[in-house]
Amino acid sequence: MTATATRVLVLNSGSSSVKYQLLDMRDGARLAVGLVERIGEETSRLAHTPLATGGDKRETEGPIADHEAALKAVAAELSADGLGLDSPELAAIGHRVVHGGLKFTEPTVIDDAVLQEIERLVPVAPLHNPANLTGIRTARALRPDLPQVAVFDTAFHTTMPEYAARYAIDVETADAHRIRRYGFHGTSHAYVSRKTAELLGKDPSEVNVIVLHLGNGASASAVAGGRCVDTSMGLTPLEGLVMGTRSGDIDPAVTFHLKRVAGMSEDDVDVLLNKKSGLVGLCGDNDMREIRRRIDEGDERARLAFDIYIHRLKKYIGAYTAVLGRVDAVAFTAGVGENAAPVRAAALAGLEEMGLAVDADLNTVRSGEPRLISPEDARVAAAVVPTDEELEIAQQTYALVSA
Ligand code: AMP
């Protein structure tokens, strides 16, 4: 890496999409952001915004066959603005990798052995790790000389004590198949818990925070002195909170029942719980804006879906208060957490005995900045802390390659 190399490209490769951001690590500025969608279809779409030049968003539609073609198209877009992958200013590429198992507790420079280990974890992350691997392999082929770093969604949760991470099932079976609670959204929980400490004017080691990452996927974590001690997602991102399309916690016997009594296949059950459950299963909509609109019109199904969502959230706030013993702040983040004031108000309503309260005026302030929404005299701070997983990935990547 040359002394002038201050840029990091962050890649988030999904099964049919690639999201990317190019950042300048001197100040964290976004130089370009974009998204390739529907890879492998006739109607692939690339949307690229060259923020560095102040240029308009450029959108192109047409077939993009695979991840290699997608990354090449991204590289061409970046080159058109003088930000190409061949630039000496590019220090590294940071990849979001969903599952790092127990081995990857830190961001890791990718070599062949690391690739093999990510591959070994495919059975516990069949939907995510293969796409992440394809993104990494493609990027390495394009710039074999450039450091590439894997930043794992599970890493922040590897500090969970064994009694929080283990399921109460037969130990030999669990160990043979690596069945345990890993947790996800770790990059967001790490970033938001640190930012919450900053908002309180304290060092992360001094504060206990409950982070509620409420996006289309949703998870809660209990963070004690900067270390995760419990989180709501498990072996897969299906466990825990009610989400946009996932059920969250459910009696596992429901799955036997669906197979034995409803005659569903393994795949049917998988699709039901991951794609047709949660808010969408309960009321047909997974967008909280639409659900709130329907509630305002008196829609009973939307109301019940909202109430189930909030009830689960409250249970986790209560559970993590007990796990932490002392809570300094509850932080709301991600699409719903950052934008849906009624969700925040409802989640903390009636928890005054636990020191939690929401100031109605502060709660409705719209801002992209971390902010408090609790009254000044509240024992526990309530906060809205916008997450920034790309910045966190870029910072972790840059810290590793410039060390
Ligand atoms: P994420 O996965 O973090 O991008 O969050 C996406 C979700 O955030 C959407 O499905 C919506 O439910 C929710 N969302 C985004 N904007 C708003 C808003 N202004 N009000 C309520 N919910 C929102």
Give the topology, please.
Blueprint: E1 7-13, E2 18-24, E3 29-37, E4 45-49, E5 58-61, H1 67-80, E6 90-97, E7 108-109, H2 112-120, H3 129-142, E8 148-152, H4 162-165, H5 171-176, H6 186-199, E9 208-214, E10 218-224, E11 227-231, H7 253-260, H8 266-275, H9 278-283, H10 288-296, H11 300-324, E12 329-333, H12 334-339, H13 341-348, H14 360-363, E13 371-372, E14 381-384, H15 389-401
Parallel strand pairs: 1-6, 6-8, 9-12, 12-14
Antiparallel strand pairs: 1-2, 2-3, 3-4, 4-5, 7-8, 9-10, 10-11, 13-14
The site of adenosine monophosphate has 12 residues, from helix 10 and helix 12.
Description:
The structure is a single chain. The model has no long low-confidence stretch (mean pLDDT 95). The chain contains 15 helices and 14 strands. It is of the alpha/beta class. The N and C termini lie close together (11 Å). The strands form two sheets. An eight-stranded mixed beta sheet has the order 5-4-3-2-1-6-8-7, sandwiched between helices. Strand 1 (7-13) and strand 2 form a beta hairpin. The longest helix is centred in the last third of the chain and has 25 residues, at 300-324. The structure holds adenosine monophosphate. Adenosine monophosphate is lined by residues 215-216, 244, 286-289, 334-336, 339-340.
